[in-house]
Amino acid sequence: MAEETKTQEPLIFGLRTTANREDQVMDFVTSNAEKKKHKVYSIIRPHGMRGYIFLEAETKQDAEQAAFNIPYARGILPKTIEYKEIEHMLEMVKVEMNIRKNDIVEIISGPFKREQAKVTRIDKVKEEVVVELLEAAVPIPITVKMDAVKVIRRESEEEEAPEEENIPLTIPSPEAKARPEFIKPGETFAEKVEEAKEKAEEVIEEVKEAVEKVEEVLHIKKKREKKEKPKPSEDELFSGEDIESIADIGDEELKEELKTKKEEKAKAEKEKQEKSE
């Protein structure tokens, strides 16, 4: 009687990873297993689970060798995992997402985690939403998965709008999707940048003109203040101060007058001194 050979069922192992590095570890493990011919049949990352991925391999040694010396991999769990334990993570379940255009949402995963944003477009086919960060200086469209956001506020006018199911869904072409929303169809990014540069130059010219006008007003005001300064009395003029410092008020006519009077006074004093001698 021929002996029946029993085929060993593949085993499932859990591999711990650094949080948010699961996809990179999957790529590294896949490449390593293919290169070194380890008997690893599948690598799974359950959606929403952080810090773990699952390997389906023939033996624990195959799983460990495939994950050996891999960046961000933190070791195979000691016990195997039954399929029924992760079955609910792997089956596709349709979940209705109650997200509408103009909803205020909070991003709950990814690089923009905890940021608040406004929904500008919904793509139900790809299960993605396009949002704009509320605190960003310039509104830039960001595409995230529907399950990466949660609604925190809904605009009142949107509550009265028709339900999302009754609104025909338009899926943008890849070309339209790649174009930022502030660029109109038919325009290129370079044209938009050139237009922005021209506007900036216009603003700079306007600022320069405004500065020149302010300087001109200040100059006129300064001249007026100099002219309106009262002339000193004759006693003040000849109190011993030199002509240059007295005439600093900028009036050339006054300067000449002071010079003449001072010369006359000096001459009179000289004649008086000669007579006394």
CATH topology of the largest domain: Alpha-Beta Plaits
Q: What is the mean pLDDT?
A: 76
Number of strands: 9
Order of helices and strands: EHEEHEHEEEEEHHHHHH
In the sheet with the most strands, the strands line up as 8-7-6-5-9
The main pleated sheet reads as: 5 strands, antiparallel
Tell me the number of structural domains: 3
Round the Cα radius of gyration to an integer and report it.
Answer: 42 Å
Q: How many DSSP helices? A: 9
Low-confidence stretches: 1-5, 157-182
In the CATH scheme, the class of the largest domain would be: Alpha Beta
Helix content: 40-55%
Spatial gap, N to C terminus: 164 Å
What is the CATH architecture assignment of the largest domain? 2-Layer Sandwich
Shape: elongated
